[in-house]
Design a protein that fits this description.
InterPro entries: MnmA-like, MnmA-like_C, MnmA-like_central, MnmA-like_central_sf, Rossmann-like_a/b/a_fold
Shape: globular
Number of helices: 7
Radius of gyration: 22 Å
Catalytic activity: S-sulfanyl-L-cysteinyl-[protein] + uridine(34) in tRNA + AH2 + ATP = 2-thiouridine(34) in tRNA + L-cysteinyl-[protein] + A + AMP + diphosphate + H(+)
Main location: cytoplasm
Distance between the termini: 61 Å
Helix content: 10-25%
Largest sheet: 11 strands, antiparallel
Order of helices and strands: EHEHEHHEEEHEHHEEEEEEEEEEEEE
Number of domains: 3
Keywords: ATP-binding, Cytoplasm, Disulfide bond, Nucleotide-binding, RNA-binding, Transferase, tRNA processing, tRNA-binding
Protein name: tRNA-specific 2-thiouridylase MnmA
Structural class: alpha+beta
């Protein structure tokens, strides 16, 4: 196959590209420039897609003896990921920019260009693997639970899966990938993993949003509507947050309060006891299936609401309005804007963006 290897400059994508070459594929490497402010170098393990990362990717491509290019996707990244991130926070939602990047950039914009240029598939260093069945390809969890990335790939559809190549999915551990990189002479064998949001490399999401959205004084209220504090912008808060509330009125029982809801229209933040974070039901209108859609409109599954959260057994209901999920036990601290990924065993069924939640603890209880 003609393979376009997306090379971030990290060890995972480097080994993935090396394995694609070793498997006999015709491989070309590409690094995506996602920011036009490219003068920064990476600091420690924060951020990604910097000049340093592009140079690391090029060195690996040279070692493998494959063609290498840098493609400027900064405008598309700004429109589809950064602007979406800002608008979601302004709407009182908690987005997942890594999932959106996979959906809009790596497996949409990049894959579209790859197919236009005659490539058969895009290769990445994601930890997940594909299984071919009589009904088509299925997306499954990686062999290494600690590194499994199937959650952020839950947005991929059947057509995208058909042109995707995950060489690392069945590798038992990240340590083996690093050891293999060292054996191959890949210079990034011990390079730290990136974390945090790549376009906020200092990790100060609150400060970054304040610069982009601005500040506006608003009220912090309890579940009954009583004012217990104030803030400088509702966008700076997310469901489940405990720190940085600076409440002027203590709770009657003296226990800590947590953010339960963000209301952007009134610039209000709702707080309450930890118990009220328990969610009995979630639903969303925007959904997609990773491969063949479920046969039945109601089915048993497991639902996962964060990249490294434990899956929870649940019942899902699919209608023309969207997907509704009732977990067997309450979910904790779910925020609108998060993605709920549905599994059956190791298989990813699909995902939806959470629009509404129903608390397991009624007001006044």
């Amino acid at each position: 196959m003609r393979i376009l290897a997306a090379m971030s400059g990290g060890v995972d994508s480097a080994v993935a590209a090396a394995r694609a070459v070793e498997a006999g594929h015709d491989v070309t490497g590409v690094h995506l420039a996602l920011s036009r402010a490219g003068g920064t170098l990476r600091t420690g393990s924060r951020g990604c897609c910097t000049i340093e990362d592009a140079m690391d990717a090029r060195r690996t491509a040279d070692l493998l003896g494959i063609p290498f290019y840098v493609w400027d996707f900064s405008e598309r990244f700004r429109d589809d990921v950064i602007d979406d991130f800002i608008s979601e926070y302004k709407a009182g939602r908690t987005p997942n920019p890594c999932l959106r990047c996979n959906e809009k950039i790596k497996f949409a914009a990049l894959l579209e260009r790859a197919l236009e240029l005659g490539f058969d598939a895009v290769c990445t260093g994601h930890y997940a693997h594909l299984v071919s069945t009589v009904t088509g390809l299925e997306l499954h969890r990686a062999a290494d639970d600690a590194k499994d990335q199937s959650y952020v790939l839950g947005v991929l559809n059947a057509e995208q899966l058909a042109h995707t190549y995950f060489p690392l999915g069945e590798t038992p551990s990240k340590a083996l990938v690093r050891a293999e990189a060292a054996e191959r002479g890949i210079t990034v064998a011990q390079k730290p993993d990136s974390h945090d949001i790549c376009f906020i490399p200092d990790g100060d999401t609150r400060g970054w949003l304040a610069e982009k959205v601005g500040t506006a004084t608003g009220e912090i209220v309890d579940r009954e509507g009583a004012v217990v504090g104030s803030h400088e912008g509702a966008h700076a808060f997310t469901v489940g947050q405990r720190r940085g509330l600076y409440l002027g009125v203590p709770a009657p029982d003296g226990k800590p309060r947590f953010v339960l809801e963000v209301r952007p229209v009134t610039n209000t933040v709702v707080v309450g006891p930890k118990e009220a974070l328990a969610i009995a039901e979630i639903a969303g209108e925007r959904f997609s299936w990773a491969g063949a859609a479920p046969v039945d409109a109601e089915f048993a599954c497991e639902v996962q609401i964060r990249a490294h959260a434990d899956p929870v057994p649940a019942r899902a209901f699919v209608t023309e309005e969207g997907v509704r999920v009732i977990p067997d036990e309450p979910l904790n601290g779910v925020a609108p804007g998060q993605s709920a990924v549905l599994y059956v065993g190791t298989r990813v069924l699909g995902q939806f963006t959470i629009d509404t939640t129903v608390s397991a603890v009624p007001i006044g209880a």
